From TrEMBL:
The organism of origin for this protein: Pseudomonas parafulva
UniProtKB keywords: Membrane, Transmembrane, Transmembrane helix
Protein name, per record: Lipoprotein
Bilayer-crossing regions: 6-26
Region of interest (Disordered), ranges: 34-58
Source lineage: Bacteria, Pseudomonadati, Pseudomonadota, Gammaproteobacteria, Pseudomonadales
Length: 58
């Protein structure tokens, strides 16, 4: 086998291993990422206040 061919094959194998490791890391990182809220949370409405009661005459 020619020395040039051996070096080219070694570089190609190194690149394929690097791409496979990067793909695996990105896959794990995407799986464990926190979900992003699509919409902003709506503010809670203020509780309704009761109307003052009229004094009862006895």
């Amino acid at each position: 086998m020619n020395m040039t061919l051996a070096i080219i094959m070694l570089v190609c194998m190194w690149l394929s291993v690097a791409v496979a490791m990067l793909w695996g890391v990105l896959r794990i990182a995407r799986r464990h990422a926190q979900p992003v809220a699509q919409t902003q949370p709506r503010p809670q409405p203020a509780p309704a206040r009761r109307a003052p009661r009229a004094a009862a005459a006895h």
